[in-house]
Write a structure and sequence with these properties.
The protein is α+β, with helices and mostly antiparallel strands. Helices cover 31% and strands 24% of the residues. It has a four-stranded mixed sheet with strand order 1-9-10-13. The longest helix has 28 residues. InterPro entries: Ald_Oxase/xanthine_DH-like (IPR016208), AldOxase/xan_DH_MoCoBD2 (IPR046867), AldOxase/xan_DH_Mopterin-bd_sf (IPR037165).
Length: 340
Amino acid sequence: MKKRGVGLACIYFGMGNTAKPNPSSAYVELLEDGSCLVRCGAADLGQGSDTVLVQIAAMALGLKPEVVFIESADTLTTPEAGMSSASRQTYVSGNAVRIAAEKVKELILKQAEDDLEARGEDLVIFDGLVYVQGAPDSGTTVEHICRNLRARGILTSAWGSFNPPTPEMLDQETGAGIPYGAYSYAAQAVEVEVDTETGEFDIIRVIAAHDVGKAVNPMGVEGQIEGGVVMGLGYGTMEELVYKDGQLTTTGFGTYLLPTALDAPPVVPIIVEEPEPTGPFGAKGTGEPPACPTAAALLNAIYDAVGVNITSLPVTAEKVYEGLRTLEKDRNEIGRNGSN
């Protein structure tokens, strides 16, 4: 017989280093052709930070993303941005880029005040055009203003840095405190089908809702959620360090199993946007949180399906089978005691 169950798990996750300085910095430069160059030490490991930082610079400057370029993770040309860890780059480096870009924007708007004979608060920069709000046809271009400024020896570049606030450091004795400037929140549901004869189980689907503050790149966020869920399932069902006589035996991918695309169930990512006041345009990181609640939700789903409470990872068909047999034995024992 096969039975289905659904399990839930929730988390909250701090952005950046725990109760430690967590700075990043960036340079943003507008060039004479109206394009923009971002220099930042953030390393893109495949998580998409290059794309996000380009988008943040474009949003801050009012440019099209396709005219913004980035140099990243080059110790010769890029400023310090800290490690690509702790789900921090969108939040921390994103703010550094935003701050630098806003400084450059101030230079453009100040010059545009004279060129367009308008107040700065009435001016708009959109898709590389600078104009008085409501009159896009009577403006000028960022390229034109940039050339004028550079002709006068005024460089259209700026540096920005950001170090997240830690409202309350950890107490040295109790460990209590508020060690992060921002937190991410998530809830995941896993649906499973368990064979009560063999203990084998299939993961039918995973629904993952994640608060990301503001999704700068929604497709990238969905990819982070989907990839994180699969990593969480690997942690929950496959990955195990096995020792024999004090020696690690799972030393390669032949013995330390990792999930592949063939192991991935349908994942339904749900992006929840609750803007973070200290984040760049309200954004927060989405790197590690998707991997965190998945295993717990899986164990809860198995319990919901067949009543077996697994207390160690990875969960295997053998562990579920043993749990089912223990439950059967306990029920038989209760039945015998009741008949007496």
